[in-house]
Amino acid sequence: MDLSACFLAGDSAGGNIAHHVAQRWTSTPPPPSDNPVHLAGVILLEPYFGGEERTKAERALEGVAPVVNIRRSDRWWRAFLPEGADRNHPAAHVTGDAGPEPELQEAFPPAMVVVGGLDPLQDWDRRYAGMLRQKGKVVRVVEFPEAIHAFYFFPELAGDIRKLVDEIRAFVEDSIMSKQSMA
């Protein structure tokens, strides 16, 4: 098995987890030179980030978006975050504009961030991509203007699902080619 180009991927809360795993993986001391594992990229499908601020999209899509709404989101954050923490906790709010500046090591891999135009979390996802760019990271943002949160679970949205698979494939291939050209 070739572990020289591994990718982390996650959707929704899994996207949040993929970010934190990549951050932790790249901030630990480098593995021995004979370790074959190399993190080549991270794929975040509508990652579940948040904060105390109510973004424009959260307010505009309240009562309209079928999967994510403010009430549910607040309940999920209360269940997930440490007792006494608010939504500006670094596990939720990863961009640093309401808390500690996130540390991303040079080894943090290229990222693909998928944003749904009808997802209340879209503003957080775009901020995340912006933060990566500000830190000099390679980031590919893929927008689906008519997509709700977790649109890829709905077979009736097959056109978008095919496009998503094509975008993921292209990101993986580009990341591997880039890694090979640097070697």
From TrEMBL:
InterPro entries: AB_hydrolase_3, AB_hydrolase_fold, Carboxylest/Gibb_receptor
SUPFAM superfamilies in alphabetical order: alpha/beta-Hydrolases
Source taxon at top rank: Eukaryota
GO molecular function: hydrolase activity
Residue ranges occupied by any Alpha/beta hydrolase fold-3 domain in the UniProt entry: 2-152
PANTHER family: ARYLACETAMIDE DEACETYLASE, OS06G0306600 PROTEIN
Annotated protein name in UniProt: Alpha/beta hydrolase fold-3 domain-containing protein
Organism of this sequence: Oryza punctata (Red rice)
